[in-house]
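Archive entry: two folds, one per protein. Generate the first.
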Amino acid sequence: MTAHRTTERRHSSGDPLLTVAQAGEFLGTGERFIRRLITERRISYVKVGKYVRLERATLDAFVDAGRVPSQR
């Protein structure tokens, strides 16, 4: 077993992998914004061959990290 294999996070089968377009639609943004997040390494992604996919849980965590609580 290689070193990177031991630190690898397994994908749960209940969490769908989304395309960049689907991720943009999910967040209500365009593909360009999602690609910028990926390029700047602000969001983790999965490489499936030459394709980039995003886990829905990752997008949920990104939204939660940007949540601003109310003052009430």
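Generate the second and append.
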Amino acid sequence: MKKISKAALILGAGMFMVTLSIGSLSAQDKPKGKEWKAPDAEAKKKSAVKSDEATLKAGKDIWGQQCKSCHGVKGQGDGPKAEKIDISCGDFTSAEVQGLSEGALFWKITEGRKPMPSFNEKLSETERWQVVAYIKTLKK
């Protein structure tokens, strides 16, 4: 009986560890999804707002209300809704995302692409530029 209990304990612990490791997959472990490139003309656009303290605060506030549920507090794609999404929500601290132009980020926020919604009607143009400015602060 004790041998069975030990075996059950070992098996149970092993299953727990597997469950724990699967449940803790990071955003980077999910597939990226199809390439999403902004048109050249959009990517070349420059921000319409000055990247100052007020802009960054406004961008951070909007991020907290509109973005962090999927993209996470620090932009690592680990928000509470991210685990329900089949593809990665992206790591905004990565060199790949940080290397995107302001215009490309603005276009993506404006247009959206499933599963990310368009923010064209949810946020003003100024608010979208404020979010772009904030995203640029999320470097590793």
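Annotation attached to the second fold: The two ends are 53 Å apart (CA to CA). The CA atoms of residues 71 and 131 lie 13 Å apart.
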